[in-house]
C-alpha cells in the first residue's frame, strides 16, 4: 500500500522525484511546519483516497477526493 500526497489547493499528486536522507546532518533551528489534515480525520475519506490511489491510479480520481481550487493538468 502506497501513501498519497494531498495538497489543500491542488488535490492529489505522486510525482515525488527523490528523497535525500542525511543521517549526520543536524540543524536544530530548522522550523518545523505542521502538516494540514485536508481530510479532517475522516476515516472513510482516507480509505477512499488510498483505494483510488493504489488500485485505480490511472484514472486520476484520487486527485479530486477533496474539492480543489485548481488542477495540475486538464
Automatic annotation (TrEMBL):
Origin: domain of life: Eukaryota
Subcellular location: Cytoplasm
GO BP, sorted A to Z: cobalamin metabolic process
UniProt entry keywords in alphabetical sequence: Cytoplasm, FAD, Flavoprotein, FMN, NADP, Oxidoreductase
InterPro entries, alphabetized: MMACHC
Family the UniProt entry places it in: Belongs to the MMACHC family.
Protein name (record): Cyanocobalamin reductase (cyanide-eliminating)
Organism: Rotaria magnacalcarata
Amino acid at each position: 500500500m502506497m501513501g498519497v500526497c494531498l495538497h489543500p489547493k491542488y488535490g492529489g499528486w505522486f510525482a515525488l522525484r527523490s528523497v535525500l536522507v542525511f543521517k549526520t546532518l543536524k540543524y536544530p533551528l530548522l522550523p518545523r511546519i505542521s502538516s494540514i489534515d485536508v481530510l479532517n480525520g475522516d476515516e472513510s475519506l482516507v480509505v477512499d483516497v488510498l483505494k483510488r490511489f493504489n488500485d485505480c491510479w490511472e484514472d486520476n480520481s484520487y486527485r479530486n477526493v477533496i474539492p480543489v481550487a485548481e488542477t495540475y493538468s486538464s
